[in-house]
Design brief:
Elements (H helix, E strand, L loop, with lengths): L1 E3 L2 E3 L5 E10 L2 E14 L7 E5 L5 E6 L18 E6 L5 E6 L4 E6 L6 E5 L13 E5 L1
Antiparallel strand pairs: 1-2, 2-3, 3-4, 5-6, 6-7, 7-8, 9-10, 10-11
Length: 138
């Protein structure tokens, strides 16, 4: 989830719907606005993280891979293992970075404005796990 102004964006399995928070007095309440979406990813993913650019104009969406070693074929991996950049106003999206198996914890460092992500590597391979890592995303 990421809050930009009064818009709360929640990364869903195949879309980034917007929830708008309406503040009235001391009470907070929210309501889903299905007509407004910052874009869709082409394929569902259970691993997704979300961050807003420092100026709030763009969303950066981490989309995980489909499998450990393409067990489901390369077609199932299209558009995955990447961070997507989505324009909040137009919904235009482009692949910002690729080759990041499961980019989680996507965030901007507040002083430098640099994008960082934690990359979760392969799993379910016993004690011989590939190490997860924190990396700057360029």
């Amino acid at each position: 989830m990421v809050l930009v102004g009064n818009d709360l964006y929640v990364a869903d399995t195949d879309a980034i719907p917007a929830l708008f928070l309406h503040l009235r007095g001391n009470h907070h309440f929210s309501r889903r606005q299905a007509h407004r979406s910052a874009g869709r990813t082409d394929r569902p993913s259970l691993d997704k993280s979300l961050a807003a650019s420092p100026d709030g104009s763009k969303l950066f969406v981490g989309v995980g891979s489909n499998s450990n070693i393409t067990e489901n074929g390369m077609a199932a991996e299209a558009g995955r293992a990447a961070i997507w950049e989505v324009d909040r106003r137009t919904g235009f999206k482009r692949m910002y970075a690729s080759g990041l198996r499961n980019p989680t914890g996507v965030a901007f460092e507040p002083q430098t404005g640099k994008l960082w992500a934690i990359v979760n590597e392969r799993d379910e391979i016993g004690p011989n796990l590939v190490p997860d890592y924190l990396t700057a995303v360029r």
